[in-house]
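User: Predict structure, ligand 4'-deoxy-4'-aminopyridoxal-5'-phosphate.
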Amino acid sequence: MASLSPLLKQATPVIVERGEGVYLYDEDGRRFLDFTAGIGVTSTGHCHPRVVAAAQEQIGKLIHGQYTTVMHRPLLTLAERLGEVLPEPLDSVFFSNSGSEAVEAALRLARHATGRPNVVVFHGSFHGRTIGAASMTTSGTKFRAGFSPIMGGVAISPFPTAHRYGWDEATATEFALRELDYVLATVTAPAETAAFVIEPVLGEGGYVPANPAFMAGLRERADKHGILLVVDEVQTGWGRTGRFWGHEHFGVTPDVLVTAKGLASGFPLSAIAASSDLMAKAWPGSQGGTYGGNVVACAAALATLDVIADEKLVDNARDVGATLEAGLNKVAADTPAISDVRGLGLMLGNEFRTADGEPDAATAARAQQEAASRGLLLLTCGPFGNVVRMIPPLVVTEQQVDDALEIWSGVVADVAG
Ligand code: PMP
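Assistant: Predicted complex:
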């Protein structure tokens, strides 16, 4: 008899049996409000009937239509329909399975298209666990420690994290752009730099939004030097932030967009998007894989697109997100241990600090555990593990947010009051 490796670290002891909308049910039938959405994946809620129907219909026809061997219609239709949501001029897409794979695909594309070796990433970012993506990840040493030698060619520049210094946003932005220029002058010359790779909102790194001035500064430098601007929208895409893409908050257009998670409501599917001209600079066969663009996942993604449009889920993320944020701010106002509430739409984090201002991972973990025991599933994040994040499915209602806030305020009063 074999057993599951202890290498898997789980945030809760829950063994889940089924899901419906914003709720998960364990094997004993206990109901949980799921404010994790499977790490920001189940955008349309658990088992949305239209996603289930699309997947069930597809699964009876074809489960695996291997895309480097034969083509299948759901992939072609999805590629076409992504044109409805992608920014111009990103009119060409390539599919894979996970966020990490898509980040690696973007890295390959950037290196091929520019003929340059290096990338600049922004301190606190998470881009994945495969060695290439992990080498670009600086949201915590746990994703790198002991994995060396990691991939070379990655320079790290500051992200504008005003809250860390007690600065205002303008000061943090000015600092981060000045340091980027310094990195380009001292570490990786522009002529050797293929791409800037950035999350519009630091996800695993603690739910820190970028801002228009910083993103404009990146765009300007990218244009000046022929460097590609790659946005990793794995966590911020598909309506999560109250706009379809996170970067839309900041008024810039990326050259390459990376998406996964919310794309297929829980089926493994990811993609990169770029202009056809840019894609044409790499060569056919330079990307691929056995499972990429799975036909059932593509069918689920098509249904996901329909549900997001028909149920106005992007607007819901904005509006219900505002209610959640206001409620969290109210709790924080009564709780000195919560030093900051931040994020966009339905991607919100609560940062815990001690009375001395030090990151307080212990209280954040206690709050997360206590919330789970009271029926509210949450995750922590941040380089110090001191941020409790809330990322419910985008179908969440005002009532469900009220229910979650009631549990949360009780939890916080008990663990940090
Ligand atoms: N990029 C970002 C911004 C992410 O949040 C994640 C996952 N948390 C990844 C990449 C990696 O995605 P995956 O776990 O599907 O490989």
